[in-house]
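Um, can you check?
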Amino acid sequence: MSISSSEGLNEEKRTIELNGHVGFDSLPDQLVSKSVAQGFSFNILCVGETGVGKSTLMNTLFNTTFENEEASHYGNKVHLHPQTYELQESNVNLKLTIVHTVGFGDQINREESFKPILEYIDTQFEKYLEEELKIKRSLFSCHDTRIHACLYFIAPSGHSLKSLDLVTMKKLDSKVNIIPVIAKADTVNRSELDKLKIKIMSELVSNGVQIYQFPTEDEAVAEINSSMNTHLPFAVVGSVENVKVGNKLVKARLYPWGSVQVENENHCDFVKLREMLVRVNMEDLREQTHARHYELYRRCKLEEMGFKDTDPDSKSFSLQETYEAKRKEFLTDLQRKEEEMRQMFVNKVKEAEAELKEKEKELHERFEQLKRMHQEEKKTLEEKRRNLEEEMNAFNRRKVAAETLMGQAVQGGSQPFKKDKDKKK
């Protein structure tokens, strides 16, 4: 490489040779080294009914036995159980988070089964947005928990999707990259499995469900991704058991009639899923999550908060003006709510006072009624007492008169007896 320079209009040009290589073509290598040093994060959401094989497939996919408690079929609601693991392959560190939907599809009323999943996804977006809006940010060092891929497990029962599957995927398609998989595909024969795949894709298209399509813009992966898009949904089988087939041990499921080899593409699509999810498109899933799903959430959230890029007059955006306008709106709303609360308090006090006055009036009337009843009873008792005293006085008079008469009678009867006695002498 050479550089030409001129000194004045009449001077001859001279050529200066560089002593070394400029070297800006090493920027990709620098970026790779920095990324490897920082490590990567990848978060998978596993949505499916209890017992459909989510945990087994995750163990098979990453060739690791993840700790996971066995879920019960008797949960009264759906809750999400995230677990984070530190994995290493060669010199690359991966922080893998697997989120299981515990109790999904086990309730009798399944109308709101998707809500806890949506809330969890939005919560992870909210955490990342809060980190972005901080004055002192640390986006590179913080743990990114946003969901990068959603493996939606379809039970191989029936010949089409359940209404729960359609509703849930429709609610999730604007929030996360959905990759549908047919679980326990060894329970369906090949011809029925092909028909089931066609039926599932037809129902997804007719219901407007947007699933993740492997990108075909990059020439390096365009051919393989185009081919793999035709195999969706992947029919997978998971197993952590090693079975001897011929002269080698392979991961398979052993049955009385034979074995289903997990990594045999003639038996299932597990290898296709692993290639697409882990080896070829993991970075695109991370990029799509950030550039599409998170940006949509971020835009809607900031618009709700009052932020905007331009005003109606197409003037330049001012963060300070937006903040002041939002603050003024908040204070106005706060004053309005305070006034409403104050008026409500006054009304409550007036209602309480009116109620107390009514109670007081009722109590006073009751008191007056009891007072009148007491006076009437007292008057009645007084009359009864006077009547009783009169009866007692009359009785005493009759008694005295009776005693007087008896005394006179006794005295009159004793005098003749004495005269007769004197005569006998």
